[in-house]
């Protein structure tokens, strides 16, 4: 049993935490530069090929390490770690994370570990020195901080797991083939995945910062944005706008759209900046109309006087109200009075937008909306009982957590207590999860400027000025550089998670070089919608392929026709056209053209309605046109290392996950299997260079 536990100590540390006491471990290696043969652990190459040398020692007896060491005493169980240090009780609201019947694990491990000859008492793994200034990079260019390494006794003895053995371990421990517990309370549906744009080793992250609104706390969009719409409409009504008959319609807007303040349009652009869909007011423009208005014009968001990017769910109410009022403006129902001549004149689309934006801003600043949420959170907030366990796991893995939000202290305190505390173990509050709390952060300036720092010293919000941060405190203002100084971390050591592409993700990466994760709840609906529309998409691809075949035939005949009409002995003659075939080929061209028209009649409406399963006006959020990415998706790929639909999705991956981006296929990356079947072998070679003329 002892030999068995030592063999699988490293494996078990990847799948679940062991609740054990530090063993009286002896020094495994004397302090020296480890330059042994290169090996791979947890997907990371370390050793002779590393660019730096590390000093490795085992922990001293009685010391605590970032990763608990395996204890070979048979009376130590496999109880999962729960709660913060000193609190082992679990609230009944927390999701159950047991994997299998724990009584069956010892026998299972004994069976697969039989015959392994490891001396009793041998440590399975150890932790490198945590205070090493510069950790080497792995072969993906990621830091190796947070890695644990196997004892030398496990190397070079044929104890490595084969793929079949790894599958057996998964089955025996109640894991799926990817090492995720089958019986976790976390559903493993694809819409709950964490998607990776840029490879990120979560083990090496030392500090995780979180935004609050629409990140840790998700609001019911129809209820929250509908209430914001109500107050904005009321503010407009007070200044004379005829808005009594308007009703909130969230389907008119989705995240990632752009308002054209000059023309009163809402547009969706692809990653290159070309307009792919457009609406004027509440009416969708045809493709021909949109092309006539925008043609090959590029939408440049740096021209912020004209364009406004709707990159958060807080924009839904604003965009909806603006579109509806554009209809009223076009109908001649909106006017403004000249302050000098007292003449009534029509508003411009830009003036209308400014009025809507001001009314919505006033609704947020006055505090009526947030008071409604505090008074009746069940109406506006979607609770997530998996969120606290996700934060607890990250906390217990040794990571520091920071809450950095633009909301004020009164609102933050009330909402975090309402959303988090009910799911925490008895005696804990949301404050125990975070090493520092920063409210009224004034992002994006928080990441790019140095601003005054105030500590909130009383629960009712009394403040005093400070010049540096301390752990366990609540602050207002400050800057990202102060957070780095607090935790003695910078750059790739930090991960910030938020819902706003610019305020949270773009600026954190651009100014601070922090790693970033974006929370976009709509991806859950989009993944499901794409699956529902899969058959239609496949049919559309097939129609386009068949059209391309007929089009290619027609193109070839037209080329031969040009050669035939301009036949010259010095030129390549036509191989198709002659006096005998000319009439038949003309007839074939007519049939091909009729076929192409028929295909167009079938394809055009399908393209127009593509993505209607997600949004009937705008289609899929991530697509800009049928075959390209939207501008928003390009922004996500550029600035967000990870993106997902909710923070609790990280629970299924554990705090030690190594996220690797998928292989990016380019236009010339093609499978050539069919080509090899149709041509003689050896033909797939680089063309020989053309000799120079004499």
Structure, described:
The chain is of the alpha/beta class and 694 residues long. Strands 5-24-23-22-7-17-18-21-19-20 form a ten-stranded mixed beta sheet, sandwiched between helices. The chain has a five-stranded antiparallel beta sheet with strand order 12-11-10-9-13. A hairpin with a 2-residue loop joins β11 and β12. α16 runs antiparallel to α17. The longest helix is centred in the last third of the chain and has 32 residues. The N terminus is likely disordered.
Largest sheet, in brief, is:
10 strands, mixed
> What number is the mean pLDDT?
81
- What Rg is obtained from the alpha carbons, in whole angstroms? 31 Å
Structural class: alpha/beta
User: Oligomer, anyone?
Assistant: single chain
Which strand order do you get reading across the main beta sheet? 5-24-23-22-7-17-18-21-19-20
Count every beta strand, where a strand is a DSSP E run of 2 or more residues: 25
**Can you count the helices?**
19
Q: Roughly what percent helix? A: 25-40%
Strand content: 5-15%
Q: Any low-confidence stretches, pLDDT <50, length ≥5? A: 1-99
